[in-house]
């Protein structure tokens, strides 16, 4: 297991349609369930309010990174947030990337969320996690990690 | 997805942040590496082969103890320290949670574009 999340889905819709659903802020808001204040602009902060029932008090805030038409849309967002007093600029953030590819039946969407290792201490824990190893294996990992053979 | 992450999960995450901070130190990480074999160690045992003083080791152990990664147990007159992996399970749980929220969001995206 890596410090990232990866998803891969096939959509039976043309590339242009999926691109619009991802990058038009109103359309994004429809499926993601957030009411955004304005369009996504690379390098700028996107603000809004979550519309998911029960979570309407929660703010949305992200920094748009890349918008390469019909190829790549990415943003970073903070990870500890949740209350209005949070200073988002000081929060550790992860990177969300949507990559699109045309297929014979529609569009392939690859989603990754990475950068969990930027959250303090998380990268240290990487060595503890493994899909099948159990603790014995992980202990070896951490030993190797902290005491490389000289 | 992340709306839930930013509320219910956010509080859990805050609880865990100190765990990560406690591990963000080479010395403490090396102590954990020694302890995670499962056998409790005394401060003297932990000091063996290390340049650290017993006092310094004690200080680091207290930090680990404060977040629950390490517990002290009495063995006769001596305190020994043992490793508790529980607080660290949280990170995997968190990634699983975020992952599941993405599954839900993406399935809404599918219904949204496949009309």
Distance between the termini of chain A: 27 Å
Oligomer: heterodimer
Assign the CATH architecture of chain B.
Answer: Orthogonal Bundle
Overall structural class of chain A, as computed from helix and strand content, comes to: alpha+beta
Integer-rounded radius of gyration of chain A: 19 Å
Total count of domains of chain B: 1
Descriptive account of the structure:
The complex is a heterodimer of chains A (150) and B (115). Chain A has 150 residues and is an alpha+beta fold. Chain A has one domain (4-119): START domain (Alpha-D-Glucose-1,6-Bisphosphate, Chain A, domain 4, 2-Layer Sandwich), CATH 3.30.530.20. Chain A contains four helices and seven strands; from the N terminus they run E-H-H-E-E-E-E-E-E-H-H. Chain A has helices spanning 15-23, 25-32, 122-125, 134-146, and strands spanning 4-11, 34-36, 45-50, 59-68, 72-78, 93-102, 107-114. The longest helix of chain A is centred in the C-terminal third of the chain and has 13 residues, at 134-146. Chain A is globular. By secondary structure, chain B is of the alpha+beta class. Chain B is built from five helices and three strands. Chain B has helices at residues 2-23, 26-35, 43-47, 54-66, 86-113; strands at 41-42, 70-75, 78-83. A three-stranded antiparallel beta sheet of chain B has the order 1-3-2. The two termini of chain B are 21 Å apart. Residues 1-7 of chain B have low confidence and may be disordered. Classes of the chains: A alpha+beta (150), B alpha+beta (115). At the A-B interface, strand 1, helix 1, helix 2, strand 7 and helix 3 of A face helix 1, helix 2 and helix 5 of B.
């Amino acid at each position: 297991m890596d410090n990232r999340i990866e998803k891969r889905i096939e959509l039976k819709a043309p590339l242009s349609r999926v691109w619009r659903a991802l990058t038009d802020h109103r359309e994004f808001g429809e499926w993601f369930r957030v009411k955004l204040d304005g369009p996504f602009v690379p390098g700028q902060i996107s603000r809004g309010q979550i519309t998911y029932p029960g979570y309407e008090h929660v703010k949305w805030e992200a920094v748009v990174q890349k918008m390469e038409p019909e190829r790549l849309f990415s943003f970073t967002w903070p990870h500890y947030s949740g209350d209005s007093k949070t200073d988002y600029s000081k929060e550790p953030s992860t990177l969300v990337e949507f990559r699109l590819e045309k297929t014979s039946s529609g569009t392939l969407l690859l989603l990754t969320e990475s950068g969990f290792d930027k959250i303090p201490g998380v990268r240290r824990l990487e060595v503890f996690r493994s899909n099948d190893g159990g603790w014995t294996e992980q202990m070896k990992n951490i030993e190797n990690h902290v005491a490389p053979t000289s | 997805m992340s709306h839930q992450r930013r509320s219910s999960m956010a509080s859990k995450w805050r609880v865990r942040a100190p765990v990560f901070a406690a591990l963000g130190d080479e010395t403490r990480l090396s102590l954990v590496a020694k302890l995670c074999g499962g056998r409790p160690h005394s401060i003297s045992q932990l000091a063996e082969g290390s340049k650290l003083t017993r006092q310094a080791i004690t200080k680091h152990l207290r930090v680990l103890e404060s977040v629950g990664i390490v517990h002290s147990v009495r063995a006769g007159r001596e305190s020994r320290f043992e490793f508790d992996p529980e607080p660290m399970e949280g990170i995997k749980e968190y990634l699983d949670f975020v992952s599941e929220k993405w599954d839900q969001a993406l399935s809404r995206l599918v219904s949204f574009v496949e009309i």
